[in-house]
Amino acid sequence: MTQPALLLLAQPASIFTLMPFKSLNLSEQVLRGVQAAGYTEPTPIQLRAIPVVLGGGDLIASAQTGTGKTAAFALPVLSRLGTHGRTRVLVLEPTRELAAQVETSFRNFARFTDIRTVAVFGGVGYGVQRSELKRGVDIIVATPGRLVDYLKTGEISLRDINILILDEVDRMLDMGFLPTVKDIIARCPRERQTLFFSATVPPEIAAVASFALRNPAKVEIGVARSVNESVNHALYPVAYDQKFELLEALLAKTEFDSVIVFSRTKHGADKIARRLKAANHAVAVLHANRSQNQRIEALEGFKSGKYEVMVATDIAARGIDVAGVSHVINYDVPEKPEDYVHRIGRTGRAQAVGDAITLVSPENAADIRDIQRFIGAKIPELRLEGFNYAPIIARPDQPTQQRRGQRGGGQRGGGYGSGGPRHQSGGGGGGPRQHQAGGRGNSSGGGGGGGRGEGQPRPAEGSWNRFGASGGGTGGGRRGR
Length: 481
Prior knowledge:
Elements: H1 5-10, H2 28-36, H3 44-54, E1 59-62, H4 69-81, E2 89-92, H5 96-109, E3 117-120, H6 127-135, E4 139-142, H7 144-153, E5 163-167, H8 169-174, H9 178-187, E6 193-198, H10 205-212, E7 217-220, E8 231-237, H11 243-253, E9 259-263, H12 266-278, E10 283-286, H13 292-304, E11 309-313, E12 327-330, H14 337-344, E13 354-360, H15 365-375, H16 399-408
Parallel strand pairs: 1-6, 1-7, 2-4, 2-5, 3-4, 5-6, 8-13, 9-11, 9-12, 10-11, 12-13
Helix pairs in contact: 3-4, 4-5, 14-15, 15-16
């Protein structure tokens, strides 16, 4: 959205006429903060949510990760507050990293006001937080556990809260915070504005919305459960015992700026990090067992470029807001489809282009089907040229995955197919940009799926085609950067 050229010439003295945010009726002090933060044009979620928040109504807003949800509530809330006063705003976040980052965003946008903010979360001492609370703050950004500690001691009172924001609601519910969140909501005044922001809107949110919100407006940007269109996706089938070898090969052959590697477990993240460090990669680790100081150092080092690779678990996925992450690699397939959306949302942020790579073994088949059904799209399967693939054979004794596969319901002939349209001959488009690997044509007929792309090797013995695909062929050609 741009201003007419005539208007720009008519009022050259004011910086605000140059800013599309001006049309959203934000205060001049907040607009100065927006400009200082480097924002130029509102994103779709900001365009639609900001007027609702300024109007004082309740709101349920959902948009893909990385589309500017924080500014969508921070900017209008700061405009409504105006000046320093009592503690009037409470923002609940599921993780320490998110609480710290959201509080930083509030502080940056409020730099030309006298509004005070504080981040309240565990993993650190109480001293600094207590000092800030005693000085008096307008906005508290908190994780539920540490907030309850202060409520019990009486150091925080919610009696003057008139704006309550639940950010990343789906993740908060998924982490088991529902009883605590309900208790916190009950402590807030009944006459208040309540805002829910989330990347996905699962049915469980209705259980909270029914008593927390009153006639909320609903803003949904993009298809529910969709993923950012600026992210290219690919599956890389590989034998379980070759996963780390393939990870190393991908890192060696990929032109990346910075990479986040996701593991399902803390132990797995530590193991991956140790092996990458032994291979001379600069690596940071982020998971719940790391101390707060270690987590801060890891994030700051990753942002500054000190570390080229971050190995993280899902609990940290939404706390990583780093510009310039070019690649996300799912070393382990996420257990829940929602986590796939949040993991890959770490790249392709602010409409930049990113790549999302998932290493898959036969035992992941049910999880991949769930993910593809959830996002409503097929993910191309690629092979890395020059990698010496071993036969891909399912590991024995995987009862959890077997049960998930039975629940997923007997799809045949499609490998990881989700029941959606098949890849056309020569398929595999939409995969990552550099790896010189073609996708597999997913044909259900006999004989020929997609033809091989130029220079693309035929599937090796025991390759992915033997796991459910009834057609043959390797589709797609090379895809360059």
